[in-house]
Design brief:
By secondary structure, the protein is of the alpha/beta class. The chain is about 30% helix and about 10% strand. The strands form 2 sheets. A two-stranded parallel sheet has the order 1-2. Strands 3-4 form a two-stranded parallel ribbon. Strand 1, helix 1 (about 15-25) and strand 2 form a beta-alpha-beta unit. The chain is globular.
């Protein structure tokens, strides 16, 4: 067996694991970072135990199989976490620079709340290929509107409502 030495081992190659590995390398290019991911089908491997049935057993994790959806937590949740732990650095306004650092918006949006230089390339459905058809988009929008749920124009940290 070959012996390989690494500086960091990251267990889980989901979005967070990949982002962490990338950030470590950006800060210190000489670091050796190993990402361990279960792979597409760990069944039958005596060295692997599966929990919770299926999951995104690929680099990129569950976001690879759920269309890569991106949604930050609600500002009120961040503020509540800050209150619970007694550390305002977990509040929305303090976390906002880090949220923005993750994002690379490909469409025009508010630079006060979104980033343009991060590793995660983002675009709303309306900014994607105009020839792509989303058959359920309007029926789902109408159903939620019929329940009294309002449109959310992506304003200042609230994720409540209908948005892209």
């Amino acid at each position: 067996m070959t012996h390989t030495e690494v500086d960091y081992v990251i267990v889980g190659g989901g979005l967070v694991g990949c982002a962490l590995a990338s950030r470590l390398q950006q800060g210190h290019a000489a670091l050796k970072v190993l990402i361990i991911e279960a792979g597409p089908d760990p069944a039958g491997d005596p060295n692997t135990t599966m929990f919770m049935g299926t999951a995104g057993k690929v680099l990129g994790g569950g976001s690879t199989i759920n269309y890569g959806g991106w949604l930050r937590g609600d500002a009120s949740d961040c503020d509540e976490w800050a209150s619970v732990v007694g550390d305002r650095r977990w509040g929305y306004e303090e976390m906002l620079p880090y949220f923005k650092k993750c994002e690379r918006y490909l469409t025009k949006t508010d630079p006060e709340i979104h980033g343009f230089d991060g590793p995660s390339h983002l675009t709303p459905v309306s900014g994607s290929d105009p020839n792509r058809i989303y058959d359920l988009r309007e029926p789902i929008r109408e159903a939620f509107t019929g329940l009294g749920i309002e449109e959310n124009d992506d304003s200042k940290g609230s994720i409540a409502g209908i948005s892209e």
